[in-house]
Design goal:
This protein has two helices and seven strands, in the order αββαβββββ. It is α+β, with helices and mostly antiparallel strands and 149 residues long. The protein has a domain of 73 residues: Type Iii Antifreeze Protein Isoform Hplc 12, CATH 3.90.1210.10. Strands 2-4-5 form a three-stranded antiparallel beta sheet, with no helix packed on it.
Length: 149
Amino acid sequence: MKTQSVVILSVCLAFCFLCLVACGLVSSYLTSRLIAQKNAKVAVVIAKHNYSKGTAILDPEEMFEIREILQLDAPAGAVSDLKDLRDRTLTSDIREGQPVQNAFLESTKDASKSALIDDPEPGKRAIEIKTKGGGVYCAPKTGPSKAVS
C-alpha cells in the first residue's frame, strides 16, 4: 500500500472511532436525564387529618404539612406552598395523606366563616338576597316553596 492510502485509511478509522465515542457520550447523557426525570421529586401540601367540604382553612401549618413525593405521583394542580392555603375554603372532602389540589380550594374574604352552604333541610329552600355592595347572601327560607312566574 502506498503511504497516501495508509494515511487516508488511518484518518477514516480515527474519524469513525471519534463518532462512536461521541454517540456513546450523547446516549449516556440522554439516559441519565431520563432517569433523573423519573426520580424527580416535588414538594406537595398533604392533609394531616380528614377534612370535610366547607372547612375554612384558618391555620394551614396546623392542618397541613409539606412532603416530597415523586413528580410522576403528584396530581395536576397540586399546591406546593402553605401560604397558598391561607383564607381559603375546601370545596370537597380531603382524606388524611391526600395531596391538596387547587381545584379543592375556594377563596374566602372571611376565613372564619365557611363560604359553602349545606343543602337545605327537607321542606326548606335557599334564597338569594342581593345587597348594595354587590355581595350576595344566601339564607335558608322556611315554609313550602312556591313557583314564581
